[in-house]
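Entry 14. Structure prediction run on the chain below.
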Amino acid sequence: MKTFVIYVDTSDKSVKSAKRTQNIFKNNLNIDVSLFKGIDTDKVWQTFIDSNFNILDIKRFGAGSIDAEIATFFSHYNLWIKCLQLDTPILILEHDAILNNTKIDLSILENFKGDLLNLGEPNWGSFYYGNFKSEWLSKKSGVSKRAICKNKHDTYQIWNTADGLCHCDTLWLFGAHSYLLNPTGASKLVEATKKGILPADVYIRNGLLDIYDYLPHPVKQLEEFTLIQRWKK
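Output returned:
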């Protein structure tokens, strides 16, 4: 298993944060993490033009800076390509990924044969949207395969449906800061770009490939700064 942390070389904060992630995984899990240079927002539009990709749904962009959202997608995309080139599982981290207090059984990662194993705690952290309580809180520890929601509603509004709350908060990663990707999953992610792209954590979605979760999620984001969101932290 190879491990990479995405960083932006034009941001001192990103470089510093990525090196901290390197040290955390090395010191606590003895995992060697290689720095992986992400796409800079200043260059992203030329990258997008050269790719000949289309936007799958423009309404799904804009939660943060669109430039940064597309740059993040390409940073992950380049690692999917690398996974195929290496023909080996890779653990993909973002520059602000840190460990929770949960211990990681490395044998689970080494023996994982599915498409994608998510280690990252969803970005909302508290798991609450008003009265919405995520089903993650009641799941057993271990590896859990995500189910596909068959309810008819706007899947982007899972906690505000006509029939009440829907526990389909498993459709996307809701944060692509830590996941183990096998070549089978990388192949599916790359192939689907022919239909169009989305922000990385929305593009990586259930149904496109099989997503599993390592529970409780052992990795979270240390949100000290942001290169995507338009507002100040």
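The chain is about 30% helix and 20% strand.
Filed with the rest of this week's runs.
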